[in-house]
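User: Hi! Is it possible to get a structure for several chains at once, not just one? Here's what I have:
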Amino acid sequence: MTNDTRSVISLRVNDATHRLCLDNRRTLLDALREDTGHTGPKKGCDHGQCGACTVLLDGRRVLSCLTLAVTAEGAEVTTVEGLAGDGELRPIQQAFVRLDGFQCGYCTSGQLCSAVGMLAEHAAGWPSAVTADLCPDGPAPALDAAEVRERMSGNLCRCGAYPSIVRAILEEAR
Amino acid sequence: MNAESSVPTAAGAVGVARPRVEGRAKVTGGARYSADEPVPGLAFGAVVVSTITRGRVLDIDVAAVQDMPGVLGVIDHRNAPRLNPEAGHFFGPDGGLRLLQDDVIPHAGRPIALVVGETPEQAYAAAQALPVVYDVRPHDTEFFFGHPAGRPASALFDGPVDVGDVDAELAASAVVVDERYGTPEEHCSAMEPHSATAWWEGERLQAVDSNQGPYQIAVTLATLFCLPPERVRIRVEHVGGGFGSKGMCGPQLILAVMAATRFGRPVRVTLTRDQVFLATAQRPATDQVIRIGADADGRLRAIDHVAAFELSPLAEYIEGCTELTKTLYAAPAIRTRLTAVPLDILPPYSMRAPGAAPGSFALESAMDELAERLEMDPLELRLRNEPVVGPVSGLPFSSRNLVACLRQGARRFGWADRDHRPRMRREGSLLVGTGLAATSFSTGAFPSTASITAEPDGTFTVVVAATDLGTGARTALTAIAADALEVGVEKIGLRISDSDLGPAWSAGGSRGTASWAWAITEAAAKMRGPERPATVTADTAHLLGELPSRERHAYSAVFAEVTVDPATSEVRVRRLLGLFAVGRVINPLMARSQVIGGMVGGLSMALHEEGVRDPVSGRHVNPDFAGYHIAAHADVPDIEAEFVPDHEPGLPMGVKGAGEIGNVGTAAAIANAVWHATGVRQRQLPIRLDRVLED
Ligand code: FES
Ligand code: FES
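Assistant: Yes, the chains can be modeled jointly so their relative placement is included. Here is the combined structure:
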């Protein structure tokens, strides 16, 4: 069997470049966790069903368990470790701490990256399944609790921290 | 300290809302969970589980994968170390722990081999390629009340009771409800899959494992591998939720230890998500019949609660569905029976609010049906049947604030305006209904040790083998230690999460915080004694026995408002309010998160969760998050939770537990609201679309 085919790639993670020789089957999630030392992104299902592995790829949220690492060459990957620049927490991170937007914390890095990506999508005018007015020339949809819940539904939290996560995101959006 | 004399301390940390001490680590990715621990020279184990439900393994063709790239080897029943059959837990010896000991397959999803490789990809590729030949035997996984294999459940707790003459009281009742309620198999579904990394350091076995109590797990593991307990050390820094599924010595840990021993290097075993569904604890299905009789004024005459649950012949277990029935309402006659039905399934175990969650769904649905037939306000029915002493035990209540929960909740929710007839409220095309449920959850403590050292710099090192699954234990115990030592929280250095820290109970049974806090306050009392020793250790084992017999429970009242779309049958929970009496609240911010999280779990139980089994293969057909739905953001409204003043006189700081009670009443409150909206009773969970508008 020839299933040890490997590739050498450069991976940009949180503004640093990593030169890696990777099994072509390695997911971006496993490359981050096992090769570049970024264990902030979590593996909750490995099947794109829970959102715990969410990272930003060129600013857009992706499920790193469904992304092969070799396809991320040339992109800017941002993980939860890269959200706080220079040790200063971003306001949304502060809001998660202050409003208790987590319990066990296992889904948290995915929730945070997803929220950052989601807010950018909203700012760019992207509608969601609960957006009433889909007219492309209309005003950007207001970001209320229902919009946040809909747009964040790919990020499961078994501890049930949803109400305070939504509060923290709405605070950031304001 | 005398067992009943504890008085709330005047100092400052307990009762203050304070963010978690590990908050920053959790929002920056710095918090380390079991699979995050860097270990040099690590190999990876991939678990192979049985695809058949009952039978034997005829052959595992190791040679077919041995030469695949990176494969170090395969462990199966032919070469695995022998395990001690006495190993078990609370309920006795557990055959579920005895992995790879023989060729017998007792249930689908049973681990039958571990493939170890240099990388996760190599190990998984070989595990998927590993040929297994089975001898398939007929199985029985079909659970129902009158199953011929049913037998009385173990009476270790929630044993049968007979108070008064149930049949005579029912015959004399003006109204009788006699209905059957069911709950399906449910999965704990913590977001962190079970992961363990094991290695040997000289004579000592070291492991990092996701579990709910490193000390208890280390004791079980030592027994299982016939090692002296001091040669086993288990650590667990952060745990990504447990909800019961990490209360036991898990398959990941047992297999990692086997592999580390065999290959002489550190091995990490992480279950895949479907393996978490198939091979770690689930809540068993229940089938329950309740008969309640009352006078025309709503005073109960009798409750008869007969419940059955499924288990495995491998291990004893009790799903104590009838426990609340013995304490929640006054009635001159109460009878309970609990039947266990052994089937070819994974041994069930405690899932958040075991027994109480399914049991209260039946009891509080039946109470709502009684109110309906009496044409009475369901709130009033509950208030009218408030007991003075334990209706079965005859013991006084240590503190009972259910009425305060019901009354304050009703005021806040606007219950007084409710038209109690069903299907009376519409908003546009939607049907709207409200419902409530009352609950209790038993409270207490288990033995624990703790030690405190006064450091030269004026700080205190507080050591207890607690774990923090997301409960906030770190933050709560820091506050408790600060108050007990009468210093500020900044003077406390807390060490938890390590079996070397001494005997301690696990996080479970809503007793973690109370048990650990008791040991800490005992140690602190010694520390402040006349001798002022540098290091003190306390063990609460003897104190627990001195605690007078009382009915000790936390209470809550849950109110729900739902909308039902008559075209699609979709149920949406629009409002959810819980009022809680959980003793002294250590940290209102975290306690609120915990009970709200419990209510989210209850909502999920009400509307979504159902482990579905294929009767032909006996296997779960939905062992993943695409098929087994747990509540997501869009399912959950902005839940409200409040605490009524409460105090548990028997436990230090007056604490009860808040870990599970949030789960308990919510399913019934939602089911009762769905009836109020539609006029259709929901006696089987979850409240699926196909059940909403048809009977
Ligand atoms: S781990 Fe990627 S979605 Fe669950
Ligand atoms: S905080 Fe535990 S899963 Fe979200």
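Chain A has a mean pLDDT of 94. The domain at 6-82 of chain A is CATH 3.10.20.30 (Ubiquitin-like (UB roll)).

User: Great, thank you!
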